[in-house]
Design goal:
Blueprint lengths: L32 E5 L7 E7 L4 E7 L11 H15 L7 H7 L10 E5 L5 H10 L2 E6 L1 H4 L5 E3 L5 H7 L5 E5 L8 H12 L6 E6 L6 H11 E8 L11 E7 L9
């Protein structure tokens, strides 16, 4: 287990997000992604990601002109790679401990139920369904999910939306969802509603830090949850840091010492 990174709380300068929003044309950190431009007037970009464990290629259509939700971000690719590598070799996967804990109730044959937050292009949810044989519900704002199937609207901070979705999920996935500071508290409230209802349910979140202000989110999160770092990518070319994958879980109750 990696120790919780202190980089979220230090005084490093902000990184330039304009250089880190989208994947490099040759993929991130040696990954297997490659863009295919179709020349459409809306400047569409088709991103191919080969998932070796299932010998299949996922093609994602990006629509940059429609906003951040319609673009593929580096942290999403990190999660896809981790899911792919876990299926190929669980003994070397940083996800194994989390997934074993979720199945420790003895229901080995049951299907894993996964909820993805801020799904954007949908590549993480698709990869999770394919590599884990999971039942995945992908969520985002209503104007984003109208393009998908098997999805549900989820506005962060809205308890009613959480109630409609339910709490049957074993695992929650998210990538690059900590960005706008006015959404920190709504996101934390949604996580509180989802995670604090179960001792086993966990969040696996991939994040690429861009702003010093993001330390506020992690400081608040650690007051509500146990937060561990389970994986860190090597830094992107020309950068000091890479994508970090966190695991959020319900805070463990302190044992009564009997004193």
């Amino acid at each position: 287990m990696l120790t919780v990174s202190q980089r979220d709380d230090d005084g490093e300068d902000d990184l330039d997000p304009t250089k880190m929003l989208l994947l490099e044309e040759n993929g991130v950190n040696g990954g297997s992604s490659s863009p295919v431009r179709d020349g459409a007037p809306e400047h569409q970009l088709h991103q191919q990601h080969y998932i070796r464990s299932i010998e299949s290629t996922v093609v994602i259509r990006q629509l940059p002109s429609q906003g951040l939700s319609f673009q593929l971000w580096p942290a999403a690719t990190t999660l896809v790679t981790l899911l792919d590598n876990h299926r190929r070799d669980p003994s070397q996967s940083p996800l194994t401990e989390t997934l074993k804990a979720l199945s420790s109730n003895g229901a080995e044959s049951s299907t894993l139920n996964i909820l993805e937050l801020g799904s954007g292009t949908g590549i993480v949810g698709i990869a999770a369904a394919a590599t884990l044989s999971a039942d995945v519900t992908m969520t985002d704002l209503p104007h984003v999910i109208e393009r998908w199937v098997h999805v549900a609207p989820l506005r962060w901070g809205e308890a009613g939306d959480v109630e409609l979705i339910g709490r049957r999920f074993d695992l929650i996935l998210a990538s690059d969802v900590v960005y706008h500071d006015h959404l920190y508290d709504p996101l934390l409230e949604t996580l509180r509603l989802l995670l604090l209802g179960s001792e086993k349910r966990m969040l696996v979140m991939a994040h690429l830090r861009r702003w010093k202000k993001e330390s506020v989110f992690f400081k608040k999160a650690r007051k509500l949850f146990d937060v561990d770092v389970i994986h860190s990518d090597d830094p992107l070319e020309g950068s000091r840091i890479g994508v970090v994958v966190y695991r959020f879980a319900r805070k463990r109750r302190k044992q009564n010492s009997g004193l």
